[in-house]
Amino acid sequence: MATQKTMISEFAWDSRYEVGSVEDVMTPALVVYPEIIASNIERTVELLGGDADRWRVHIKTAKLGYTLRMMVESGIRNFKCATTLELLVACQCGAADVLLAYPSIGANARRVREIAEEFPRVRLSVLVESQEQLQQWRGSRLGVFLDINSGMNRTGLVQSHGEEIVRLVRAIGAGGLEFRSALLRRTTSRNR
Questions:
Q1: Widest distance between CA atoms in the chain
Q2: Burial of 100 (0-12, 13-18, 19+ CB in 10 A)
Q3: CA 168, 97, 156: angle at the middle one, nearest 5?
Q4: Do 74 and 41 meet the contact criterion of CB atoms below 8 Å apart?
């Protein structure tokens, strides 16, 4: 019988991850290493040529207000999230621009509108993939991105349905809402 090889044994122990007084830690516990987080943020911005506006951090990788505040303090302004709780935390922590990157309906949509009213200085956007979803945002100050199916077949409009996409973009403007585009945003931020 072959011996089992675990992934953890393939990596050398790094003393930076050592937890002192482990007997005093109630488990399960989340351990945060601020110096490593700061280093990762710094390195990512460096990889972006120093332009933090090129980065729209997905909150699912940060989750904590503590780490979001670290990012905001490092010049990160743009975030995306999948839940209204993540949206609220981003707004509370000083995010300037947040995209709710999962189409919302019903109670979730109402909560998004409440958060938008509570944080008027934060530029909030939502995704839509249908006329029905678009209707619920009329009369709000939210920007609208189209959810385009990138080939993963999870959500979004099929890329080859150009007429449907154009119809929805026109409906966004006709509904008094702002159509937002990652491409347009990137171009705008470079021209500042």
A1: 68
A2: buried
A3: 30
A4: yes
Q: Do the Cβ atoms of 39 and 58 come closer than 8 Å?
A: no
Rounded to whole angstroms, what are the CA distances from 125 to 20, 96, 113, 160, 162?
43, 11, 11, 24, 22
Identify whether the C-beta of residue 164 lies closer than 8 Å to the C-beta of residue 127.
no
DSSP state of 15: G
Spell 24-50 as b/e; 16+ CB within 10 A means b. eeeeeeeeeeeeebeeebeebbeeeee
What is d(CA 44, CA 115) in angstroms, rounded to the nearest whole number?
29
Give the pLDDT confidence of 128-159 residue by residue, as tens digits: 998 999 999 999 999 999 988 888 887 888 78
Peptide bond into 28 cis (omega under 30): yes
Q: 109 — phi, psi (to 5°)? A: -65, -40
Dist. CA 93–CA 150, nearest whole Å: 30
Close Cβ partners of 144 (under 8 Å, ≥ 6 residues apart): 125, 126, 127, 128, 134, 137, 172, 177, 178, 179, 180
pLDDT above 50 for 31: yes
**Whole-number Å distance between alpha carbons of 67 and 75:** 13
β 157-158/78-81 pair status: unpaired
pTM: 0.81
